[in-house]
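[step 3/7] fold_predict: job queued, chain A
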Amino acid sequence: GRYLFLNAITNQLRFPNSHTHYFSCALLSLFSEANSEALQEQITRVLLERLIVNRPHPWGLLVTFIELIRNQSYKFWSHDFVHCSPEIQRLFETVARSCNQTRSQVTGSAGAPPSNIRPEGGDVPAM
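[step 4/7] structure written:
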């Protein structure tokens, strides 16, 4: 049931508007307030399932995932499920790199995409 609920929330992460902002904040709040790593892993799974398919990805999905991996308050990179195997860790790093490239292209930043996929702060475009 929880997987379906998280999928329903993720389905609302579409284009820039208040509706997307609400569900992005709800999902990020669920992640930060979760009292079990299993819930955080499931939220990550739902987002990652959408990001590993072919582009284009919905704007809200990208913004939510970028916020999750870049904002230090979520401590995303310190969770065990991110480092459970070398293959999974490489998958997360590849998707994170891909999201950063997409964000750079969307916002029109010049130059190469950031080489550090774990920068401090969460400077995601405002909605």
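[step 5/7] annotate
The chain has five helices and no strands.
Residues 100 and 114 are 7 Å apart (CA to CA).
exit 0
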